[in-house]
Every structure is written in structure tokens, then in C-alpha cells.
User: Fold these one by one.
Assistant:
Number 1:
Amino acid sequence: MARELPGIRPAVLHEALWLRLQDYLAFRHFFRHAYGYTLEWAKLRPLVASMAATLTDVQGQLLAFLEALHRGDS
């Protein structure tokens, strides 16, 4: 998603956002496989605090990707 495929499509997400999303993916993986364990607020706080900004960035980058596809950029 963070890589351009020349001649096919532009990158869907900037690498910095892709890396930020990996933290949410890691939490999801932990939660699904460690259900029943106590969650540590110290680890969750940064994810919760940046969730609104992350969602805004995802929406913006997806719209930019769709616009690039519409223009024929690749």
C-alpha cells in the first residue's frame, strides 16, 4: 500500500502513515490472541490519542489516491 507500482498505480498511503497504522495492526493482533489479559493503558494511550488524526490522514490519502486514479496518474 505504501509503494508505487510504476505504470499501474501510485502509492495508496504515504510510508509514514503506513508505519503508524502498523501500531494499530499490532494492537489488533495482540488483542485477538491475548484475549482475557489486562490491557496496559500506557501502551494504548498513544494509539487512542492519535486515532482521530490517523483517521483524518487515512481519509485524505485515500481520497488523493482515488483522485490520482481518476486522473490516470501511475
Number 2:
Amino acid sequence: MYSPKEPQWGPPDSWGLGGACVLIAGATGGIGSAVAKGFAAAGARVMAVGRDQARVDALVADLPGQGHAGAALDLNRIDQHQVLVERTRVELGGFTALVHLAAVLRRRASVDDVTEDDWDAQLDTNLKSTFFLCRAAGRAMVEQGAGGRIITCASNAAWTGGMEGSVAYAASKGGLVSLTRGLARTYARHGVTVNTVVPGEVRTPMLLTGLPPGAYEAFEAQIVIGRVALPEEIVGTVLFLASPHAAYITGAAINVTGGFPFF
């Protein structure tokens, strides 16, 4: 029975994603694993990408359906992006969508504590590598001539600017919104849509690691819905943007924040 409080993925054909071939970067993360399972439950074939081979293998083994594959890759290896895209096309039998969820957050107490290495690590993973993998995916989709979907993952920090030592992360996510819009303009004439999902606070290891006392409760107090999201509550928006239902949406930044304030 339908419940508005619980995510519903099926039946698989309701999304129009049966047989879709989806590359998910950052698939072993908190949101990534939920998204991978959502696509698999909707009838898609998934190429799950993460840094650790054992975690990738465990995720792939747990996905419903058949035809899935996995790859361990540091996405900062820009020279391997084209290889990854081609591997996806071969192992899945096609390439329909890229969902880029990989990100790094280095939480610091103060802006004065942010080092050059902190800045480079977050901008390289969250923005630089995202651009190059999206470009490799876009090229492949243009060559195929059948259109496609590229979906990135920003953050509410793109709107708030973060605070104190999280400003570098916020800058990378703000840049990602602009990047998504630029790629949308680039690929629209080829039938490739490019959009970004903008989560608020989500209960993942990234959020919970290194949080100062009382911070989690402070987040919840600011959210209109009254609680931090579960990773599964981000999945529906991603599946929608990858589906035929979103064919006329491109360059969009869709907030999934539970009413978390921008400022």
C-alpha cells in the first residue's frame, strides 16, 4: 500500500528505466549506494564505481536484477575516465546515464584552518574530476546519437556558502551548479540533459564524521520537515531526472532539502 512517508520505487516499468545502462560514480557512498539500489530496482543495469574494490563488489552483489558491473577507480585519475566510459558501454551493453555523486568534505573548525591541500582535495574531486567525467560521458552520448542523461550532485552549501571551515566545500558545490548549467547548454542540441540534485543534510558518514557536539540537533532544528533526510529520500529525484519523464528538464538544480533554509 502506498505511503507518502516511505520511498516507493516500483513497479520497475513505472520509471521507464527498464534496460537503462547507468554509470554511478561514488556508488559506495551513503547516497550512492541507495541510488544504485534504486536504479537496479527500477530495472536498470548499473556500473558501480568507488575507490575500494571490496566495497564495490559487495554493493554489486547486493543489487537486485542482473547485468550489473563494478569498477574501483580514483576519479582524480582523469586519464582513466574515457576507459571507464568505454568499459561501461561494453559491460552493460550500452550507456544511458551518468550519475556523478562522488565528493569529498574536509570539515575544519575555522576558515583559518583550511589548508591548501584541503582546498585542492575538495576542488579536485568535487569539481575538476566531475567536469572531466561528465565531458567523457557527454562525448560518448553524442557519438551514440540517442541522447542521454547526466546528473550531478551539488549541496545546500552551494546556496548557503557553508560556514567557517566548510567554505571550500561550499565553493566546489557552487561551482558544480554553474558547471551543470554550462554542460546543459553544451549538450542540449544532442538530446543529452544535464541536471544537478541539491540535497540538504542527509544521514551519511560524510555528515556524521567529525561533527561537533550539538551540530546534528542544530541541523534538525532548522529543517522545516523536522529531521535529517535518509539517503533513500534522495533517490526518487535522481531516478526521475534519469527517466523519460524528465525529457524537458535541463540545467536545473533541484533542491531536496526538507525545507532547510538557504541562509
